[in-house]
Design goal:
Largest sheet: 9 strands, mixed
Order of helices and strands: EHEEHEHEEEEHEEEH
Low-confidence stretches: none
CATH architecture: 3-Layer(aba) Sandwich
Distance between the termini: 15 Å
Strand order of the largest sheet: 2-1-3-4-11-10-9-6-7
Number of strands: 11
Number of helices: 5
Structural class: alpha/beta
Length: 246
């Protein structure tokens, strides 16, 4: 009997996108389990049976000390070694918005000891809008076959991708630029970066929310003649499922 791939969703106080993720991941074909990072001490082997780990978005710990910082410290303390071991075993990891910020602070992205940052948006404000994403050729398992891109919303104040020239060259040469803004750059990210992967292609972090465009009716132009693209974010999650069952 085939076992349904399990996606473990890591949450913290202030996380608010986990219900959306549960719905989207189950629609993609995953079984799901939500785990509050503060309760991991009661389930130390929580990642052992996971085929996929997702760090949910929101405003964990009210963005105290910087977006994702406290959440990352909690994960490092409770699950840092287990999470890195999981990636080495071939477990795919996804961090969305605040989850991307967490993966960067953990050093899982971009990997190989390099450092990047997700700074305040170039205009200094919070941006909430729909964007179109393109998926350049990369090693990322999550973005395979997304040749026509996806459309989904963004909602963040600290999403501007920043890195030095040497790191940028390494990311480009290593095909770690997984997603770029095809519509006007909403936050000033270098190279229009919306998401990057690690050198294995298993770990993806992105600022936009693909879990919020998994049904056509979620698109703001749904029902308007010739206005709907069909570029569902669901396909990114389905790629994760395809990898998990391969």
């Amino acid at each position: 009997m085939t076992t349904t791939p399990l996606a473990v969703i890591l949450t913290a106080p202030g996380t608010n996108r986990d219900p959306d993720l549960v719905f989207a991941l189950q629609l993609a074909g995953f079984a799901t389990q939500r785990i509050d990072v503060r309760q991991v001490c009661d389930a130390p082997n929580v990642l052992r049976n996971a085929t996929t780990v997702v760090v949910a978005g929101g405003f964990s710990y009210a963005d105290a000390l910087g977006a994702g910082r406290v959440f990352a410290l909690e994960i490092e303390h409770a699950l840092g070694a287990a999470l890195r071991d999981a990636v080495q075993r071939g477990t795919a990891v996804l961090g969305i918005c605040n989850g991307f910020q967490v993966l960067v602070r953990l050093g899982l992205l971009p990997g190989d000891g390099r450092r990047v940052a997700l700074g305040h948006n170039a205009d200094g404000g919070f941006v909430c809008k729909w964007v179109t994403l393109s998926a350049p050729a990369s090693r990322c398992v999550w973005t395979r076959g997304l040749d026509d891109g996806i459309e989904c919303p963004i909602a963040h104040g600290e999403g501007r991708f920043v890195c030095d020239d040497a790191t940028w060259s390494a990311l480009v040469d290593g095909q770690q630029i997984a997603l770029q803004y095809a519509s006007p750059n909403p936050n000033g990210s270098r190279g229009d970066v919306a998401g990057i992967c690690d050198p294995t292609g298993l770990v993806l972090g992105l600022m936009p929310h693909p879990e919020n465009h998994v049904l056509p009716r979620q698109h703001p132009h749904h029902g308007r003649r010739n206005a709907e693209s069909g570029r569902l974010g669901l396909r990114l999650l389905q790629n994760g499922l395809s990898y998990a069952i391969a």
